[in-house]
Structure formats: structure tokens, C-alpha cells
Amino acid sequence: MRITISDIKEMKANGAKIPMITAYDYTSARIVDEIGLPIILVGDSLGQVVLGYDSTIPVTVEDMVHHIKAVVRGTQKAHIVGDMPFMSYQTNSYDALRNAGRLLQEAGAQSVKLEGGVTMAPTVQRLVSRGIPVMGHIGLTPQSVNQLGGYKVQGKTVKAAVRLMEDARALEDAGAFAVVLECVPEDLSALITEKLSIPTIGIGAGPNCDGQVQVFHDMLGILSDFKPKHTKQYTNLNDIIRGSIQQYAEEVRGIKFPTSEHSYRLNPEILSELSQQVT
Ligand code: KIV
User: What are the residue numbers of the active site?
Assistant: First the structure.
């Protein structure tokens, strides 16, 4: 049985911090699931870290379905949240329902995440009332990067902070089971976390959120040229991968790989018979 939204809400009630991470494929999801993280987000950040776009805007519902399916195949226990890509829910609540439905029915996610607060609350309510659990996402909402004028910390003035609090409350009232706070000053996210009964999951929102989310590729140092302030690089896989591939190429060129350890041999009798037949 997978982790449910009730389990996730209970974690807040019990004061248990919630570690969440993104994954986009079978292999990484399997590792995360085996370690026992309760939530995996198949984020539309896959647009940048997997597909090579410079934002999340080009990501499609088809892309999300493809990657969520792989993550679902690699996991047994984790709750899989599928991100709703740009323009799959902002147009109208019918589109939102159809596309969210695809992420659950076709791809196998257990819930969806969408960006926006007060303005998206009616959509959240519609999805929830049709049986689709929703995780909200406020603060820095990357799908609105062109409107926000860049990837900036949000809620820095009293007016902006009050608006974020209203966004968080609107999502809770609409029935969201959790809300991501991205790039929000830690004092403000502490306040939002205290006022909400549903869990807050922070990224660049300080230690007081109920949970944290990190992008798989960022925290493992897979891409060397992207290190946002809110990411802790737990290792530098870029160096490890480069070193290993360089060594492999050198060994192939120097005829040091493969050795007999990595090769298959014919039975000596078959070899001898073969030598007589092949002249
Ligand atoms: O797409 C994503 O990875 C996200 C997280 C940064 C929260 O939305």
C-alpha cells in the first residue's frame, strides 16, 4: 500500500518532518523508494534537468505522463505527485480535470501539484471534489517566470507576504492536502506553517516548513553549472560520472578494458572443433 494523503497530513499532526524529492525515471525513483522517502514529486522541472529546456514552460502533459509512468514502475511505497504542466490547468477547470485525470488514470500518480493560490483555488476545489488530491504550490511559481520577471524570492513586502498568506489559506480551504512554498523568506514560511493545518513543503523556504523538497539533479550535483542558494549539494556526481567515463574511454583506447573478467569464453572443445572448420 502506498503512502496516502491521510498519512501525509498525519505527519504534520505528529510533528514528523516530511522529506520529498523529485524523480523522473525508473532508476532514480526505485532508489528513492527503497530508501523510504514518503513522497516523490515528478516535477515539471524535468523540462530543465532532463529535457534541456531553459524553463518549465515547454513541458507538456505527454511529457509528464511518460515520466510519471516510469517513476510509478520503479516504486511501491512512495506517494507519487505528478506536476501539472503550464497551460494544462490555467485555461479552465474542465481542462484541469481532464489533464489531472490523465496523470492519475493513465500515468498512475496518486495526486497532482499545480501552481497558484487564490486564483487557482476554485480549480483546486473542483479537482478535489472529483476525487483528485491536489498539492498547491505558491511563492516562486516557475511557470509564471515571465510574469514574475525572473526566479526571485517572493513575499518580501508586507503586502506580498499578506497575499501569500491568503494564497496558502485559499488552498487549504479549497481542499489541498499540502502546499509547496518556494523561495519564501523563512520567517514568513514559519508563520504560514503555523497557521495552516495542512503540511507545508519548502524549497528555499527555511527549516520551519513541515517538509522539504529538493530537485534530484541539484542535490546530487549532476549538472555542474547550476547551484541555487537553496540547494545543498550532498555529493558531486558530475565529477564522479565524468571521472568514470573518462577512465572508461582511456581504458578502451589503451586496450585495458574489457579484460577476461568481463568477457565470455567458448568451451575449449567447441573452440578446437571450430578452428578445424573455419579455415
Ligand atoms: O518541478 C519541480 O521540481 C517543483 C519543485 C521545485 C517544487 O515544482
Answer: 182
- Whether 44 lines ligand 1, by a CB cut-off of 6 Å, is yes
Burial 104-138 (b: 16+ CB within 10 A, else e): beebbbbbbbbbbbbebbebbbbbbeeebbbbbbb
Q: How far apart are CA 102 and CA 85, in angstroms?
A: 12
**Segment among 170-174, 225-229, 231-235, 273-277 with least mean pLDDT:** 225-229
* Amino acid symbol at 109: A
Cell of 229: 542558494
For 5-235, which CATH class? alpha beta
> Is the pTM value of this prediction over 0.90?
yes
pLDDT band at 65 (very low <50, low <70, confident <90, very high): very high
The model's confidence at residue 84, banded by pLDDT at 50, 70 and 90, is very high
Q: Closest residue (by CA) to atom 2 of ligand 1?
A: 43
